[in-house]
Amino acid sequence: MKRVMSIATSDSGAGAGIQADLKAFLCCGVYGTTSIVATTAQNTVGVTGIHAFPPQVALDQIEAVASDIGADAVKTGMLFNAGIISAVAGAIDRLGLPNVVVDPVMVAESGAVLLEPDAVDTYKNELFPLATAITPNVNEAFALIGEEVDENHVEDCAVMLHALGPGAVVITGGHTASGDDLLYDGERFVRVEGPVYPSDNTHGAGCTHSSSLASFLALGFGLEEAARRARAVASEAVEYGLGEIGEGAGPVHALGKILEGAER
């Protein structure tokens, strides 16, 4: 069985973060491991607390997993501060971990800020050059290049992000008019289409997408096919989102279709 490591933050409401990653790994048929770099106190309404661990905590977990279980791919999620990002980048580089998908999480579905401002340059300088792909949503993509969102210039934004060193850029389109994801590998643009479900139950969609992308890369799919499959998993997770959980934006449900089939 292929092994995929999530290096990210715990979500006490279990809609996003490490918890969403593990659900996506299970859905994709890979074995998920974790390095938890911080924990949040949050629910569907908002984030009431963020508690980052010392960078050594992340390193200890990464090295423990890599030395025994190994990893066929890595996904990074919310890393919160420059110290954690730098430590994670150093470990990925030193251990030669493959198929690195970086989801530069910056803002929660509720609007809470999940990345300290001085950490953006650390992402760009240390982690992006190690990435097989980065997966910002359109708001994160333009924030990373310091510009206002302009849906007429998403391709230009992708080119600028690619120049920072990742092998490819996948700008997810859930916040755009078309809903399409955009893949740019330095040579060509590929529109990754998929169904768009009008729903408030989207908490964890980005985590599910990036974890699925890492999973399909681990399983041996090429980048374009992996991106198409990841888009399908994320879209389906939104389709089966759990509106009955909490009073705010409900969590996506990566296993919804599988469980529905099991009930029949």
How does the helix and strand content classify structurally? alpha/beta
Give the CA-CA distance, first to last residue: 28 Å
Number of strands: 9
- Average pLDDT across residues? 93
The main β sheet shows up as: 6 strands, mixed
What is the CATH third-level topology name?
Answer: UDP-N-acetylmuramoyl-L-alanine:D-glutamate ligase
Name the beta content range. 15-25%
So, the CATH homologous superfamily? Ribokinase
Radius of gyration: 17 Å
How many helical stretches? 9
3D shape: globular
Number of domains: 1
Describe this structure in words.
A 6-stranded mixed sheet has the order 3-2-1-4-5-6, with helices on both faces. A 3-stranded antiparallel sheet has the order 7-8-9, with helices on both faces. The protein is an alpha/beta fold. It has helices at 17-28, 55-68, 82-95, 120-127, 138-144, 154-162, 205-218, 223-239, 256-263, and strands at residues 3-11, 31-42, 47-52, 73-76, 100-102, 133-134, 169-171, 181-184, 189-192. It has a single domain (3-257), classed as UDP-N-acetylmuramoyl-L-alanine:D-glutamate ligase, CATH 3.40.1190.20. Helix 2 (55-68) packs parallel to helix 3 (82-95) and helix 7 packs antiparallel against helix 8. The two termini are 28 Å apart.
